[in-house]
Amino acid sequence: MKKILIVLAALAVFISVAAASVRCEEATTLNLTKYKDAKSLKTHEEIISRVKLSGKICRFGVYDYHAIVPNAQVWVAEYPESKKLDIRSDAAGWWTLNVIKYKGKDDGFSFVYEKEGWITTKSNVIAVTDQDNTDLAIQFIDPDVFRNGMKPLIGLIMMSAKRPAGAGVKFRNAMVTTVGKSWASMHDDRLPHGEPGATVTIVPGAVGPLYFNEKVMPDPAYPATSVDGGVAWLNVPKGEYSVTAAKEGLTFATVKFVIDAADAANGIVLYIASPPDAIQGSNTAEP
């Protein structure tokens, strides 16, 4: 009898853990189909894809390359209802979003990263297919580094830069990406991962491009990328922008940013495409 009770107790624990796991997954699921209940989803399983998206929030601007940001909220700009899921990074900086979508119907997600006291950041548009994507990343800029270091420098650049009509002097936003080697990734410890000597797309109406120097700061004196690979455009008007890079003998990916009217209401100031979803080049050489 005692053994039976132990077995039943163990089974109850297993069922409880399994149920909790299911509830946890449901709580972090963005359903993009018209089938909202379990029975309907099961009935139409042949046309449904269940996709796992996961990424790491890196604390950019501090000495430690491996620094992360816990308890930051992540949601999808194209689907504002995703904010209600309250997806947050864990103690190791990782977050997970489960997506239910129609098979073969690819989508594009711009992830928004926010945390009290930090600079709200929106990613480039990242393709969501029928395959899991578990190596997403963002360089979430340390707020003190941005306010005390980068923003004053940007202010000086804005004062002295040749500005397109309508760009203004006051800083409004920045669109930032990395031009990198084929293996460039925030999940890869090889540094520097930038592709030096590349030039990027000119964005109409924006100040820039401004290339980052070896100290990872925007520097108007640089005519092309440094080994850091960083580049920024300032005061970018609303619109959709596809940007890429050029360097003799190499090919580069194109990244797309969307800056829309809802962004200002959501407090978005920075638009960042981080490796491995930045402007990856065909150069496979080591640093």
Description:
The chain is α/β, with parallel strands linked by helices. Strands 3, 4, 6, 7, 9, 11, 12, 16 and 17 form a 9-stranded mixed sheet that branches. A 4-stranded mixed sheet has the order 1-5-2-8. A two-stranded antiparallel sheet has the order 10-14. It has helices at about 1-25, 40-45, 145-160, 260-265; strands spanning about 30, 50-60, 75, 85-90, 95-100, 105-115, 120-130, 135-140, 175-180, 200, 205-210, 230-235, 240-245, 245, 255-260, 270-275, 280. A hairpin with a 6-residue loop joins strand 6 and strand 7. The model is unreliable at about 5-25 (pLDDT under 50).
Low-confidence stretches: 5-24
**Integer average pLDDT:** 91
How many distinct beta strands? Answer: 17
Overall shape: it is globular
**Residues in β-strands, percent:** 25-35%
Write the H/E string, N to C: HEHEEEEEEEHEEEEEEEHEE
The level of helicity is: 10-25%
The whole-angstrom Rg is: 22 Å
Count of DSSP H/I helices: 4
Class by SSE composition: alpha/beta
Biggest sheet descriptor:
9 strands, mixed
Q: For the terminal residues, how far apart are their CA atoms?
A: 66 Å
Core attributes:
287 residues, nine-stranded mixed β-sheet, 4 helices, 17 strands, globular
Short description:
This protein is an alpha/beta fold and 287 residues long. The protein is built from 4 helices and 17 strands. Strands 3, 4, 6, 7, 9, 11, 12, 16 and 17 form a 9-stranded mixed β-sheet that branches. The protein has a 4-stranded mixed β-sheet with strand order 1-5-2-8. A two-stranded antiparallel sheet has the order 10-14.
